[in-house]
Amino acid sequence: xxLHPENAILLYRxxxxxxxxxxxxxxxxxxxxxxxxxxDKHQQLLDYLPxxxxxxxxxxxxxxxxxxxxx
Length: 71
Prior knowledge:
0% strand; 4 helices; mainly alpha
């Protein structure tokens, strides 16, 4: 990630890893950046970690950023 900070897919993968390890606060920060960088690729997170569909903060961030991308 340090070498390719503009790579949203890496950020989504890191989010999945952090969520799986129970680091929700760190995952939230990275997910926020990833969604702002490339919202359309958020499906990568949901494909990589299907349980993310049940995590409230993930759903809230996706919904918030979805609304921003519609304007």
